[in-house]
Amino acid sequence: METVRKPLNEDRVALLLGSVIFILALLKFSGIDMLGWAVKIGMWVGDPLDAWRPATKGLLPGYGALFATYAILTGALACCVKLMGSDVVKFVKSFTIIFFIAMICYTLGANAYIAANPTQLKAQGIPWALGLSTEAGLILALVMGIVISNFMPNLAESLKDACRPELFVKIAIVIMGAELGVKAADAAGFAGHIIFRGLCAIVEAYLLYWCVVYYVARRYFKFNREWAAPLASGISICGVSAAIATGAAIRSRPVVPIMVSSLVVVFTCIEMLILPFIAQHFLTGEPMVAGGWMGL
After folding, report:
1. Which of the chain's ends, N or C, has fewer CB atoms near its CB within 10 Å?
2. Which of 10, 247, 259, 260 is nearest to 149 (CA)?
3. What is the DSSP code (8-state) at residue 284?
4. Do 67 and 54 contact (CB within 8 A), yes or no?
């Protein structure tokens, strides 16, 4: 009798791919560069193609790094989708469109007139800039997503097979957690200082902010537990990743962490345009405090 293999869930697939990427990155310590082909988005002024650069300088031309990233990333994620028992062909078609829309948004957002801060104007050879950093592309991607979902419903429906925010964020969390472990080990001299600050942040976020937000959401906004828990995590701990992780942990419907994540992203985009000016005025001599405030 033939045994049918049970598909893996998102958590296991994310752990598997995240671990593989982390192990490949560790090979750099042995002089083996397995991820140098990955494309990075840098600032540009005249030619948009100048924004595309390989992670390892000189390894590939910019467009080569872009297409290598597309091919390898699509292949890796297609394997994940296969392990979860979903349609690989539909995923690849949808993901291809999403990938290149995202790259266009990130490239436009990296234009020096949009991204450069005052210290970079001279190096870029421009007289002024908005100073939004290259992450302005994230705002453009958000706007593009809103436009597609509201004004191009047929296109939005065709892209659903590749819209797996929970899977993508979980993979990123695995990689980020491993990276933080390596950085902590590398900065052993600051270990005590970091541990103390980390404990303070944990007490503040988990024992104070989370409880307050959860209580307010339940008591005054009448949210049920399925909505209140991801909302409390998204606001008090770590934004989108915390909301998605909490939603997965409590087995909420997929729409719940997605809606909470959208709320967090929209609020953050507005807030990050305002907070730097407030910090510049009130926290001029405390850059660590200002960074921690805006980051949290």
Report:
1. N
2. 259
3. T
4. no
